[in-house]
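Complex record, two chains
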Amino acid sequence: MSPTRLEPLSPEAERLFANERQFEPHPAELRSRALGRARSVLENGRAAAPSYVWGRHRVQLLLAATLVLVFAAASFAAFRKLRTGARPAQLGSPALGERNGLSARTPTVPAVEPPAREKPESTEPAPGERPGTPAAPRRPSASDADALELGLLQRARGALAKGDFSAVLSAITEHQRRFPSGRLREEREALRVKALLGLGRTDEAQRAGERFRERFPESVLAPRIEDATRKAP
Amino acid sequence: MSSVDVAPTLVSAMATDERSCFDAFQREFEYLCRTLRRLGVPAEDVEDEVHEVFLVLARKWRKYDASRPLRPYLFGIAFRVVAAHRRKRWRERPSDFAEPVDSRPRPDEALEAAHARGLVLSALAHVPLPRRAVLVMHDIDELPMREITGALALPLFTGYSRLRKARREFEAAIKALQKGTKEP
């Protein structure tokens, strides 16, 4: 028998499939909500997409980054000079000391830390940026960032489906850390309310629900959030 | 038609790519919802799942070859979204997704059609997802096998063998459900 040859379907299966092809449409309300959510993502995406921000505000970003670097370098140099002046008898350069495993005993390492800690606070965090890599991180493409962002929220939704509300909160916390202004922030905040409700943290859920309504008053998810928090004991 | 469909300010404000993606999603929305239901998504989860399909579509839209038919492409995305969602569950429980079949006598054709639909969805729930996808695309959406195997990234012969097996499983499930037994 040819591998591409098929036996005909039974008359009963034919009848059922023919009926299935003439399905009834889904409620208009569902369509309206789903299209509203899609629209919201596109609108948020335009506002938060890294490539868009980079393209539109390139000069301002470069200027800000340069100023931050100059300030950090000047602070570091001044601090180092001050420390060197206080301990003139120290042998070898700080860099050599670090290479030789002496960094724990030399006072130069703490001097480097403050600018490194300040850097993420002084610049807009790029979506998908790896934590703890202050020196020239690879800038992820918009597509990478989208995939990462989506992956995090998929993880949260998967956990919600399993009733693992702690895992939901963990995933959305990570999302918030990496994508504070991500295109899916509205979805994230809605998931937060559901997770808090699931954990029985009703007061926090109510507050999160209020914040959601303030931040996204036009959201198509708002009625569902309202409904869920109202039903909470 | 809802107010969302005709919001002119929104549509004009979107970039061309985004607009074409949104238009395609809007145009095929019903198809996507039907497909998700046939792939076993419970009615109450369709909204979230279709949104997830949209997110993937929006991300991949620039890679979509507009000369190819859209529906198999959308089906491929929907299939992967559903499969990923299932992998996150502890275990697959077909009964979770089965449409309840009411065996009481039906007063009119509309209810008869709804009953038949429930029967189809219940029987589909007994066909494993990879084979169910081929069955739905071929026997319900009536897509050619080459499009199906292209969308699901399968060899042609694998597509046919999955379809043959899925048909057998579907027919066995229908018989069992009509007899009133729980497991086919």
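Note: Chain A is about 70% helix and 0% strand.
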